[in-house]
Amino acid sequence: MSDPFIERLEATGVDFEIIPCDPGLADTAAFCAAYDYALEDSANTIIVAGKNEPPVYVACVVLATTRLDVNRVVRRRLGVRKASFAGADETRVLTGQEIGGVTPIGLPPGLPMWVDARVMERPRIILGGGSRERKVLAPPDLLTALGAEVVQGLARDAEEDPRAG
Q: How far apart are CA 111 and CA 114, in angstroms?
């Protein structure tokens, strides 16, 4: 039986590896500790909601060692007065994916994807696999092959500005 997720990955032409994952260890820190991956190589996909009527959304990909700058960069780029992380239910309805497995692979058509420029500097990244049972290991070129826009300063160092997220 074919797997649409794998088919989307293969269509990019970028080499990748599927990493099976215990669903209880899918959250970034737990996964990296249990499976011996560096946090610096882990890229989280975060859905942000711009508080308009109707709401506007964007998928942002940032390294686990950084904080998404929702209050300045994302809000300004979305052109909204307020923006916040989408909740678990909102993320599930929008993407069909659970927190801990959210991935840029197979996002709904029309949902923009922005990736922090630092992600593109890594030789390889670990991404969510669309469910809590798997991750994807691939070069960051996978993100641009999926149509991501690289954004300088989308995230800040976690210790640099606690108000960034």
A: 10
Gyration radius (Cα) of the chain, Å: 15
Alpha-carbon torsion 32, 69, 121, 143, what sign? positive
pLDDT tens-digit map of 34-73: 999 999 999 999 999 998 888 899 999 999 999 999 999 9
Residue type, 37: Y
CB 158 within 8 A of CB 119: no
Q: Is the pLDDT of residue 130 over 60?
A: yes
Which residues, listed in sequence order, are joined to residue 114 by a DSSP beta bridge?
60, 149
Domain ranges for the chain, please list them: 4-154
Percent of the chain clearing pLDDT 70 (strictly above): 96
CA distance 24 to 22: 5
Question: What are the residues whose beta carbons fall under 8 Å from the beta carbon of 49, sequence distance 6 or more?
Answer: 55, 56, 57, 83, 84, 85, 86, 90
DSSP lists the bridge partners of residue 136 as 18, 127
**H-type alpha helices, the chain:** 4-11, 28-35, 75-78, 88-95, 141-145
Span 4-154: which CATH code? 3.90.960.10
The model's pTM is 0.92
For the chain, the first-to-last Cα distance in angstroms comes to 41
